[in-house]
Amino acid sequence: MPSRTDPPLAPFGALLLAMLSFQFGAALAKQLFPLVGAQGATAMRLGLGALILWTMRRPWRRLAGRQGWPWLWGYGVTLGLMNLCFYMALTTIPLGIAIALEFVGPLSIALFGSRRIWDFLWVGLVLLGLALLLPWQAQVQALDPAGVLYSMGSAVCWAAYILLGRRAGAAFGGDTVALGSAIAALIAVPVGIAHAGTAMLSLAALPFALGVAILSSAFPYTLEMYALTRLPARTMGILMSAEPALGALFGLALLGEHLGALQWLAITAIIAASVGTVLGARTAPAEIAQMADPAPPPVD
To answer: Model's pTM, two decimal places?
Structure first.
């Protein structure tokens, strides 16, 4: 369970920092697509990320006597498939739509895990925000079916990642991300090699790949694991729904992408839902500290 010395809002801060890191990583990942394709970008991101984490954590020193290997393998496999499906979706459908469709996963957890009337209000606000982010014009008719299926596959994997990650984190603590990333790399790297081949060894791709590995894998997944072992799954599901709003804000600040009134309304609705979730959690600290399953050890 969370350490007694952990600040009450530390898990929320870790999750926010992870989401910000993902946004920077996504910007760098776009530079990799023309060089190695979506499959190669996924392979380099997860492969280099796993290598960095193993160098930092050296998890092999603490494997003796560990339990919960099925949860760890499930976590790692879903992590690999989630990244692969999402990057494949980005090759055929717009980023905003891919993110919105992917959020069906964590939103489903938030909805099915709700117990209080306020939770349904926050979920409703998130759904409203995501609905307003979708382009309800002619673009919807032109969506590539394969891209939609990849996004929905990523949504299923994301839901499984949240649930399995909590179980794996309970058994492996701070080594969960390093071990899970290695398993994810076993899924993604062969696919990347089959698609991109020697292009993955290009010196032009390496700096972008290292940046993506750190910003989109090693750093945020470590922070997410910290949050996963300290927050209820439904709270994680709602809070992580702020990512489309963060993406829109980063697009405005870094890429000059100006948004319409309905899009800003969507951002407001999502942020309101996230703030409401945090405030509700602060009034019920016992709910945060207690997991539905046996409490995990602190992330060391």
So the answer is: 0.75
